[in-house]
Amino acid sequence: ENAEHMYFFSELALTLNEPEERVAPTDSRLRPDQRLMESGRWDEANVEKQRLEEKQRAVRRRREAEAVEALEEGEDYEGYIPQWFERKVDTVTGELICVYKGGYWEAKDKQDWSRCPDIF
What are the φ and ψ backbone dihedral angles of 98, each rounded to 5 degrees? Predict the structure, then answer.
């Protein structure tokens, strides 16, 4: 109903980005640039998007520097480790996949997001 006024998106597509309470602070629906864009504040959204991208680049540069330093000192460097998933090889396809390793729903129940990085 009224699809022509909603870019012909389905109801599901229209609601996928709806905010939800009690989610992890890393939930993509909380992206400040996205929220600004959805409010029609395009200029502010673009500035915020650039800030977030630079923040991501800085984290990547820091991790790369840490990896180089570890290599120079002959130490192992694990790099980024996802909080809620682990990489495994699929026994059927042989492809690398991400498998839920637990913890998210327990953290959500307790509202304990201390394991989440500050990405925004």
Answer: -105, 130
